[in-house]
Design brief:
heterodimer, A: 131 residues, mainly beta, eight-stranded antiparallel β-sheet, 1 helix, 8 strands, 4% helix, 53% strand, globular, B: 134 residues, five-stranded mixed β-sheet, elongated
């Protein structure tokens, strides 16, 4: 049986600050631009891979007893984004990339907890290692 | 949940506008009133809920039923219920080991029953959603 795991042990650091204490979801996406190389007598679409990029997003809960996370997170600022999907037990996978914080979005609903949505663009390739 | 049960009892029993309408200042019971308890009184119990499990931090999302029980009339029970509502709806409870960030009434309850002796007992109350974070 494969070692499936849930996200409950996730650790995410941005610029060395742990953001995962009250997280709800973390997501990373790596994509490549597609170049349409269809021509001549082709009978099907033909594609070439272009530039590769990546994004990350996260939802965390805000805290009324401090503004540390909110103040630390500056859109346009850059920092190292590190994530450990299975936690930081030795031997578990880790991922690192440089990133720019694109946005921070705070939602304040009347009848639910206040949450913050974060979005980064990755500016380097994702390096895989172990915790 | 013992800590919340204790907090609810403390909050309700400290409300003089409530207790002045009850048979006594301690006529507030968890779960069920002892047999022979003098009316009117208040009974509260957990009806639903548990852990939210939506972040690593522990969070409770619970529903409690709090109802006034009176042998006089619906109006009398309703006045007691209104005093309970003043103490709970939108208020912040002091719960040992937890922070209460949401206490809101969601459902109203109203029904009556007739005892074997023919006495009509009136129940009026509400269901309150109570959210706690550790």
């Amino acid at each position: 049986m494969a070692n499936e795991y849930s996200g409950k042990n996730l650790v995410v650091k941005y610029g060395g600050t742990v953001l995962s204490g009250d997280f709800r979801e973390f997501r990373t996406t790596e994509t490549a631009d597609m170049i349409d190389a269809t021509a001549g007598a082709d009978t099907r679409k033909n594609w070439l891979g272009g530039l590769v990029g990546g994004e990350a997003s996260m939802t965390i809960l805000d805290a009324s007893d401090g503004t540390a996370n909110w103040n630390t997170l500056v859109p346009g600022g850059s920092g190292t984004l590190q994530w450990y999907p299975a936690g930081t037990t030795a031997g578990t996978p880790s991922y690192t990339a440089n990133s720019v914080l694109v946005s921070k979005d705070r939602s304040v609903p009347y009848n639910d907890v206040v949450s913050i949505d974060l979005r980064w663009n990755l500016t380097t390739a994702v390096t895989q290692g172990t915790a | 949940m013992n800590a919340l049960d204790s907090a609810l009892y403390s909050t309700l029993s400290a409300g003089t506008a409530l207790t002045s309408q009850l048979a006594g200042t301690t006529s507030i019971y968890h779960g069920v009133a002892p047999r022979g308890s003098t009316l009117p009184y208040v009974v509260f119990n957990q009806s639903a809920g548990g852990d939210a499990n939506d972040t690593p931090r522990r969070r409770k999302d619970l529903v409690y039923t709090v109802q006034a029980v009176s042998s006089t009339s619906y109006k009398s029970a309703g006045l007691i219920d209104a005093a309970v509502d003043d103490l709970l709806h939108g208020q912040t409870l002091t719960v040992s080991g937890w922070t209460n960030f949401w206490t809101m009434r969601e459902q109203d309850i109203e029904y009556s029953e007739t005892t074997d002796a023919g006495q009509i007992i009136y129940h009026v109350g509400g269901m309150y959603r109570i959210r706690l974070v550790s």
